Each structure stands twice: as structure tokens, then as C-alpha cells.
Amino acid sequence: ETGVTQSPTHLIKTRGQQVTLRCSSQSGHNTVSWYQQALGQGPQFIFQYYREEENGRGNFPPRFSGLQFPNYSSELNVNALELDDSALYLCASSPIPAGANYGYTFGSGTRLTVV
Amino acid sequence: AQTVTQSQPEMSVQEAETVTLSCTYDTSENNYYLFWYKQPPSRQMILVIRQEAYKQQNATENRFSVNFQKAAKSFSLKISDSQLGDTAMYFCAFMNPFAYSGAGSYQLTFGKGTKLSVIP
Q: Is the confidence at residue B105, as pLDDT, over 80?
């Protein structure tokens, strides 16, 4: 097992810009989820990908989008950044079947600051 | 929609003592999963313990155990023999694998967390 790796660890962007966050999941983990954790809050579910297709989405606007690749890596893209997008973004992966039986493995997150 | 409430924003405990963190949740479902996650300063969410709602027996993992009261919708975490390394944010989380927002979706709903400090 190599764990879940996220990059970059920190990022500063300007309002209105676009950002791409990356996640490398554990080998064999076909499910990846992204969460947004605002300061002082618990993580909020953004969306989940299974076999390279989005198969679940939380209450986030379409400017939040993602991709999952066959090599167990994935991306979170955010367009037209707003100040409220400043948060820790966590990636979590799990094998088939998804998280309930095996538990999710989380990365250490990307801290995004929008100025 | 499910909600998870952690009513203790911060707690502290002396090293080697026992501490209990509280969590309540709201759901109309009968089958679901509950979790406690630990988030140390390294920011990585680490699974501490998991409970299936259909199991009456409380889950235990070494020094960590839960008190699951399904009727009361309560899920507290007890940490025995507290260690300095237990200092972290603790999040209670709920998963309903039957509430798909898309086929195969298993989203976690988290509480706001409890900051636990273990004092030497």
C-alpha cells in the first residue's frame, strides 16, 4: 500500500482564477471522493468517482468538477474561484465495495487560499 | 438529509485518564454506518472505529470503544488510557449506503468535530 497522496500541499490563488488539485489513490482503489473542509468545520462531500465516472454529488455548484484516471489518480477542478472556496480539500479512496466495509483512506489534503 | 451533531467543541484530559466524546445524529433510516475519525495536525483523516447499525454489540479497537444507542441516535467514543498522541480533532461521521446520490455512492456526513487535548 502506498496510501493517498495529494498535491500541492498549499496553494494561493486569486479570485476568479481556476485551480486543479491532484490526488493519487492506493492501487486497487476504484472509488475516489473529494471533500471540502472549511476552517473549524467538518468535511463536506463534493463528489465521488467510480471507474472514471461521477456517481454521486453533494451540494456544490457545477464549477466544481473532477476527473478520475485509470491509473488511480484523480483531479478536482474549480473554476471562477470565490473567497469562500478557501478551505482544505481532502481526497479519499476505497476499494470495491466502497467505504462502508473497508473504510476510506484519506490524504493529507491541499490547503487552498483564495485572495 | 442526515445530520451529525458534536456538542463539545473542545475537551481536555490528563494523560492515562479516560475521556468520552459525544455524538448524536438524525436519520430516518434503519441500516447505516457510523464512524469516528481522528485528524491530527498532519491533517490526514484517520479511521478510529466503525459501527454497523444492525450490530447491537458496541465496537472496540484497543483503547477506543463506542457506546452506540440506536434508539437515542447517540454514538459516543470512549478513549481509555489517554496518550499524548491522541491529541487531535475527532469527527463523528454517518454513512447511509442506501441513500444513493448516484449508484454506488457512499458519502460521509461529518459533524463539526471535537478538539481533544491530552495534558501531560
A: no
A103: nearest CB among B43, B47, B111: B47
What contacts B29, CB < 8 A, 6 or more positions away?
B2, B96, B98, B99
Per-residue model confidence as pLDDT tens digits over A81-109: 999 999 999 999 987 645 556 678 899 99
The C-alpha atoms of residue B114 and residue A94 are separated, in whole angstroms, by: 25
**Please, which residues have CB within 8 angstroms of residue A67's CB and are 6 or more apart in sequence?**
A49, A52, A74, A75, A77
Q: How far is CA A12 from CA A9, A17, A79, B42, in A?
A: 11, 10, 14, 19
Q: Is-contact A25 A89, C-beta < 8 A? A: no
Query: Nearest-CA neighbor of B86 among B112, B115, B51, B50?
Result: B115
Residue of A nearest to B44 (CA): A108
pLDDT band at residue B104, thresholds of 50, 70 and 90?
very low
Taking alpha carbons only, the member of B110, B94, B111, B90 closest to residue B13 is B90
Specify the amino acid at residue B23: C
Cβ-based contacts of B54 with chain A (< 8 Å):
none
Q: Rounded mean pLDDT of B74-103?
A: 87
What integer pLDDT is reported at residue A71 of this predicted model?
Answer: 86
* The predicted structure's pLDDT at residue B100: 55
Sort out which chain B residues have CB atoms less than 8 A from A55's CB and list them: 102-105
Cβ atoms of A71 and A52 closer than 8 Å: no
Residue A28 has pLDDT above 50, yes or no: yes
